[in-house]
Here is the input.
Amino acid sequence: MTEVAFIGLGVMGYPMAGHLQASGRSTTVYNRTPLKAEQWCSQHHGERASTPATAASGAQIVFLCVGADDDVRSVVYGDDGVLTSMNARSVLVDHTTASAELARELAEACEAQGVGFIDAPISGGQAGAENGALTVMCGGEPAAFEIAAPVIDAYSKACTLLGPAGSGQTTKMVNQICIAGLVQALSEGLEFARRAGLDLDLVLETISKGAAGSWQMTNRGQTMARDEFDFGFAVDWMRKDLDIVLREAEANGAPLPVTSLVDQFYKQVQERGGSRWDTSSLITLLRPPI
Here is the structure.
């Protein structure tokens, strides 16, 4: 069985690591908060390590799922970083939504040690992680991808190699651009329907079967209509992702007028105390004050 390590047991990483262990891979985990790692081991009967380096020692594949660029660097480099203990021909897979620049940096660092690298951001939310149905967007060399992909299958419904290092992260940026516009449009449509006196549930049931249908409508439409936002992908995380998107767009010259506007709308949600609300909370900006 393939021995693997998983670094970062957040909302996404915790169930993803669980799927790896359940699939028959001997899984060792590391988390910055030891209590979370202990809880995971109690539930999934894997092993816990005290440092990223210890977790990665002997693993054929090391997975990361942490917060942002600097969080990735903190568990990859240094005396306790995974690169100090990874074997040649092992593979580092970074599921963190981070910059394409970081992905290319990590690919170079791994290549210098004979380690494969795949940047592999994910989409599908907490439910996708729990149900093993994530979409994984990968960048890297085909040889490393061929090693990692069958293992990633434990928690994914789709895993695609899109090009060299950085291609996965850039594709995730495309994903977030599309989501930002969709959520704003869905918010405006639902608020328009409410003010028109329509039955929101009936409207959603009807239009979701046509050209307007989307994942956001199916999974968030009814909760938006009920003002339920205490779950899902947090506004803080979306703003982190959109910051990455907008910096990349500045570098490549892509015009993103709608994405820039929606980012500012999310800033307003944060200022209203909605930092940890689901991204569908954009609709609250359209509602009249209570």
Observations:
- The beta strands are 3-7, 26-30, 47-48, 61-64, 91-94, 116-119, 122-123, 134-140, 156-161.
